[in-house]
Write a structure and sequence with these properties.
The structure holds two protein chains of two kinds. By secondary structure, chain A is an all-beta fold. Chain A has strands at residues 5-7, 10-13, 19-24, 31-38, 42-50, 53-57, 64-68, 74-78, 87-94, 103-104, 108-112. Chain A is built from no helices and eleven strands. In chain A, a hairpin with a 2-residue loop joins strand 5 (42-50) and strand 6 (53-57). Chain B contains no helices and eleven strands.
Chain lengths: 113, 113
Amino acid sequence: KAGVTQTPRYLIKTRGQQVTLSCSPISGHRSVSWYQQTPGQGLQFLFEYFSETQRNKGNFPGRFSGRQFSNSRSEMNVSTLELGDSALYLCASSLEIGTEKQYFGPGTRLLVL
Amino acid sequence: AQSVTQLGSHVSVSEGALVLLRCNYSSSVPPYLFWYVQYPNQGLQLLLKYTSAATLVKGINGFEAEFKKSETSFHLTKPSAHMSDAAEYFCAVSYNQGGKLIFGQGTELSVKP
């Protein structure tokens, strides 16, 4: 069974632009969560989606948004990019919402110049 | 606020030596506990998960962790380190808030020949 896939793997943007990252969960998994990883702040929870609905949200500004489609694929969008948004963005999928094991993708590394 | 503390941002051991990575959580309510490993340029891989069924949890690659409620700890151990164990290790907790994981800052494990 294929693992969690994330596209693109690497991305370079400039301040003020917006970006959309994509995540395809493991087949059959219905919950998708997003995390931001930076050297300074470590791993921080962004949001979680289940059945096309946002079920949980971390402490990030409204510039960070996401959605989930009927096939469980998820996208996250960051508008008006700032230098501090440079990070590794990780997507994780699990069978159901809750404390199920989460399986992580390889991440999308975003560099904002 | 709920938090996870990993003592030691960097641990170095010799090949064949005991590996001990420390994790403490801050809560009077026992959370769900996880250990993840991250190899360079990769996502996170689940090593083990505490399910409350047993205080000693065995994971993949010979790792295990013991939940000690009185010490609010969930330390990760491996009897004999291999060179391939060199990676960054993250302790994480969930307080049944959906799939939201709270991560520690990580411990980078180096293994010397």
